[in-house]
Amino acid sequence: MGASPPLTPSPRRGSGDFRSLRSRLARFLARSGAIRPGERVLVAISGGPDSTALLVLLHSLQDEMGLELAAAHFDHGLRSRQEAEADLEYCRELAARLGLPLLAGSGDTAAHARGSGLSLEEAARQLRYRFLSEKAAQVGAEVVATGHTASDQAETVLLHLLRGSGLDGLSGMRPRSPWPYGPGPKLARPLLCLWREDTERCCRLLGIAPRQDPTNLDLAPLRNRVRHRVLPLLRELNPRVDEALVRLASIAAQAVDYLEGEASRRWGELARAEANRVRLDRQGLLTLHPAIASRLLRRAYGHLAGQGREPEAAQVEQALQVVGRGRGRAMLPHGVVLQATAREVWLRREPPSPVPPLPETPLRIPGLTEIDGWVFRAELVPPPSSPRTESPYEAYLDADAVGLELSVTSRRRGDRLRPLGLGGEKKLQDLLVDAKVPAEERDRVPIVRCRWGIAWVVGLRLDERAAVRPDTRLALHLVAQPPTARWEEG
């Protein structure tokens, strides 16, 4: 039996009325199995064009497929209260018009990012998926559907390519996949058959005015720069580059599925998995094609590091070299260590080792400053209307108040500050404890110091004396990139 054809959407230049969009979706669901007849589906909606079109299109197929639908909306706490309330009201009205229940929730993404050491993007994703999983269980939904389109797929593949991803990254998002954070419902992406232009057209055809998120125009996140700058340039070289990227994802997904099947057959023969370690037969690994051997190593890594975590292609290549030599070690992310002997290959998790404090380093103003994996970008700008920022890794300081001779250090014994909004002094140690920063990581929290003391505890709090005020003449804009993040994640 031959392989099934790649699941690719119609060309971007395609158009059509609502019925044609509905037919494209129905054919895609039948071919991909993203959503199956008779399933109970929780549809994640933000109020934007993609999720609005998703809910309306699935509702139009509800009777034909025997689906039971409910909608869910999550407020990440990153927009103003007025915008968030308007988003929620829009989603409520849309669900009511369709006769569907709406489940709503909210979270403090910035606080979660500070407490867990995650980027703002990953913290938002964790909170959103936690909410969706809980609500899916509440309504008995087997599947959660999100509004990712073929346009998102093209951007994702290009982002993975830029980051040096392997074949798994190039396969992009799947129409139906396991829950990304442990046990949970299936995750469906029904709109991978449609482009962003299609969802916008769908809303226009139905006379629906979806919500617009102004952060999509912010060029600081890498995805937005890819969307608004890189892809338009690539379209000058190939007007159908988006289709080419989506086609690449589909072909890569077929290859990954085949390799996974082969790896599954070999796993039972060559691997023995325990709670904190995995043993692999080295001689058996050496008989395999590197594509299969690397997949076994990835599977062993995932068993230890957790579902959804993936080593980079270069790290897997380094691990294969150690296996080939039959001696040595390879350090992988999240504390996983690979060690090879003549007969066996062991992967295990090691407890985190103590980390040294950050060396005191002057900040280059303006410019970039690198400090043990952190990168600080500094520039002098007109003062903003408020000292508050959406990202915990961004701050505006009053340039006259702090001066231009600043440095970044670790904490010091007896450090105190006056956190903005607290109305008093606080010990830095207490601030770190309250933010649930693990004890072994507290010496790695960067502290921006000025001539009179702490100006900014990166990721946590700004000192009120350093904050911009109505009479501020010039602001110092600082953006910090954590070692495990990228500029687009903050």
Largest sheet: spatial strand order: 3-2-1-4-6-5
The percent of residues in helical segments reads 25-40%
Number of helical segments? 16
Class by alpha and beta content: alpha+beta
Instruction: Give unreliable regions as ranges.
Output: 1-6, 484-490
Rounded mean pLDDT score: 89
N/C terminus separation: 47 Å
β-strand percent reads: 15-25%
Shape descriptor: globular
Radius of gyration: 25 Å
Total strand segments: 22
- Strand count, sense and closure of the main sheet? 6 strands, mixed
Can you walk me through this structure?
Helix content is 40%, strand content 19%. It has 16 helices and 22 strands. The strands form five sheets. A six-stranded mixed β-sheet has the order 3-2-1-4-6-5, sandwiched between helices. Helix 2 packs parallel to helix 4 (81-98), helix 7 (150-162) crosses helix 11 (241-270) and helix 11 (241-270) crosses helix 13. Residues 1-6 and 484-490 have low confidence and may be disordered.
